[in-house]
Amino acid sequence: MKHVATTSRVGRPGIAWAVPGVLFFALFAVGPMLLVVYLSFTTWDGLGSFPSVSGTDNWERLFDDPTMRQAVKLSIILTAASWLIQTPISLLLGVWSAGRQKNRAVLSAIFFLPLLASSVALALLWKSLLDPNFGLIAEIGPWIGIENGNVFADGTSAMAAVAFVASWQFIPFHTLLYQGGARQIPKSFYEAASLDGAGTVRQFFTITLPQLRNTVITSSVLMVVGALTFFDTVLILTEGGPGTDTTIVPYLMYETGFQAYDMGYASAIATTLVIVATAISLLMVRISGFTAMRSTREGM
Amino acid sequence: MKTATRPDHRPSPSAPSGPPAPQVRNDRGVRGRLRGVRKWNIPAGVAALLWLVVVGLPLYVLVLATLRTNEAYYDKGALSLPGGLTLDNYRKVLEGDFFTYLLNTAIVTAATAAIVIVLSVGVGYTVVRTLSRTSQRVFQFFLLGLAIPAQAVIVPVYLLITEMQLYDSLLAIILPISAFCLPVCVLILAGTMRDIEEEMYESMALEGASQTRILLQLVVPLSRGGISTVGVYAALQAWNNFLFPLILTQSRDTKVLTLGLYDYVGQFRVDIPALLAAVVLSIVPIFVVYLFARRQLINGLMGAGGR
């Protein structure tokens, strides 16, 4: 980098300012990530005794485990469903609310409410709303074709409920991303397009969508990683059930580690999660080029 | 991130709080719209109204349910209009451990925000200003960290916290939550600090200001927007975190709000209105904050997503 050599070196701080942050992050995040790989080769009950090395036992078990196979499948389904539900809705809402009218401000304030509540609070809310006897679903279910629906009794509908609650919770956030993105599209693009006689729909597909390309990528990656690590809601809504029909990978890890106290095996499951998440993030950096974001002023 | 640092989005320093600021109206604003730049987008408008029902109805049912007696809730169903409203459910919750949970959550939130701000300002400053190979590595180190899901490392974090003899203390959750906030916060702050003019550093340095003075009198004031975004982001993460408290704390004295809510499930097993009152009470504090600091909060949430 020539830039570095020619820039004045006056007033450059040493690296010391970063040391506390780096050490802290290394201790509580990066270190554990390496440790989890090690732990996946051990047996440990999570109590007093220290982990004892057991070789590749956990991994062999992992590859033969039908529950794990099912969990991976369910995680993929949840990820795909979340993306398919959330992306079109939040894209449309975000673009729409990027306008600046008074009622939109009020409406978007309501959209934001789910963002403020914890996933625990929202899961409890939905658990009661979906109660087959006393919940909202008992009253409006018949209108929309759900008769006497105990959604949590059947694997498919329980999974659908999880995907629905996840979308309900996170669409506002992604709407916010798209709103921010849409506001940065230069007005002149639309002016030019309407002079050329392009209608709203045409403008959406020829200007808005291509301009929001980076936002789509960012939002999609966050959705994928979010769905892969979705946990709180499953714990409260379904506890992985009925049977293991909503036991997605993070929940399986929790159950194995902190309910069955099989920490070694839980670590093997967790390592799988780390590998997948890292792969996706690297892909993200490849596509969207985080490192290219050298200055927020660039390209303006 | 652009939004977080754009000068026209910044609230004036003289009025940091107060009533919610009017919707930002920059450049051509309303007039641009009236000239027919973009007309009513009917499909999106319909979707927005539909979504309003999807979001609004559950919240309406939630509030309604908490205002009714247990019997009325079970007899008449979730949507029925209430005969006699009651605040009994709220009383039930508030008489329990609610305030202990709230206090613990407040401590965890404040401490996390403080730790994250101090550490990420230091890292951001180095990354932006040092321009050495090492500082680039530091930045990449944190970018890599974006990929680590908290669930994936919860077993080793549990081991670490137990070994440090911190299990079942508030510190046990403050430390890991802070660590997991850092990558996003460093990213946000590095973005903000890059916008500070090179010349300003140089002139200050030529006048003989120390590094500490440059940091405190130039960098910190000029990256106020980014710093508050980072604070809000960290605070929200801490306020709503469930996994770390679930694994790393146990006793009543260290329970935070989210974990307390989870406990109410057992306590109010046959008393859904009371359980939902607890849910509402857990949202109220942050909603009040939202009313007063709407823009900072939204910037904070946007900052969470990058771009």
Summarize the structure.
The complex is a heterodimer of chains A (about 300) and B (about 300). Chain A is mostly helical.
Radius of gyration of chain B over all CA atoms, rounded? 23 Å
The 3D shape of chain B can be described as globular
Number of strands of chain A: 2
Query: What is the first-to-last residue Cα distance of chain B?
Result: 5 Å
The gross shape of chain A turns out to be globular
Mean pLDDT of chain A: 82
Number of helices of chain A: 14
H/E element sequence of chain A: HHEEHHHHHHHHHHHH
**DSSP strand (E) fraction of chain A?**
under 5%
Secondary-structure topology with pairs:
The complex is a heterodimer of chains A (300) and B (307).
Chain A: H1 2-6, H2 19-39, E1 42-43, E2 52-53, H3 57-64, H4 66-97, H5 102-116, H6 119-129, H7 136-140, H8 155-183, H9 187-195, H10 200-211, H11 213-228, H12 232-237, H13 249-259, H14 263-288
Antiparallel strand pairs in A: 1-2
Helix pairs in contact in A: 2-14, 3-14, 4-8, 4-11, 5-8, 8-11, 11-14, 13-14
Chain B: H1 2-5, H2 29-34, H3 42-66, H4 70-76, H5 88-95, H6 98-129, H7 133-145, H8 154-163, H9 170-193, H10 198-206, H11 211-222, H12 224-240, H13 243-248, H14 257-267, H15 272-292, H16 294-304
Description:
The complex is a heterodimer of chains A (300) and B (307). By secondary structure, chain A is mostly helical. Chain A is 69% helix and 1% strand. Chain A is built from 14 helices and two strands, in the order H-H-E-E-H-H-H-H-H-H-H-H-H-H-H-H. Helices cover 70% and strands 0% of the residues of chain B. Chain B starts with a helix and ends with a helix. With 307 residues, chain B is mainly α.
List descriptors.
A: 300 residues, mainly alpha, two-stranded antiparallel ribbon, 2 strands, 1% strand, globular, disordered C terminus, B: mainly alpha, 16 helices, 0% strand
